[in-house]
Amino acid sequence: MRTLTVELPEDIYERAERLAAAHGTTLGQQTTQLLREFADRQAEAAGTVSGSEVSRLFAALDKGRNVKPVGLVRRDELYDRDILR
Description:
mainly alpha
């Protein structure tokens, strides 16, 4: 993990700290989330894929994958679509 030091006007810092507390998180956690969302939007605008989008893609693929083994299938059974369910 890296450390980032940012200088903020006092009023913005206090407002951000109050908002983070109201959401039950810390200012550091809120800042991390905002930077993550900013990086994802920039990656999307540039046409690249973000890490969170890749994770969602793999999750969708895992959900749609047939995880029950079918076993050996004869040629005539290949046309029986019930075996693929």
